[in-house]
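Input/output pair, single chain:
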Amino acid sequence: MADNVDFELVSPERLLLSVAVEMVVVPGAEGDFGVLAGHAPMITGVRTGVISTYDGGRVDRRIFVAGGFAEVTPERCTVLAEEAVLLDDADRAAAEARLKAVEDELSLADTDDERNAAEARLEIATALLAAIDAAPQG
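Output:
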């Protein structure tokens, strides 16, 4: 399939996704970038955001990622994500509970290190909830 690019998404726990897609859009460290078959090779950081895969000119899959790295070749795009959640499978109640727990943790932080770590987790939890809310309802 010369018109497709192989997309792999790997989390610390496992290979989450390995599919051929028309295009994948990744939240890169310096801005979103799209990958089509034949893309120039590159390696870049991935920021917290949503990866979208396309088939038939339409978004067919949305995945929340919290940081990582992407490697692109002319045939493949591999994302090594620190955390990844398929938005079709996301549980809003669990995301709300996670946000509340992190807010509580932040309010109890005694040191700058604890506060900084909690603030980083708060940013991710907030972004996940926003991504769930922005996902189209099927």
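The longest strand covers residues 58-65. The helical segments are 92-108, 112-134.
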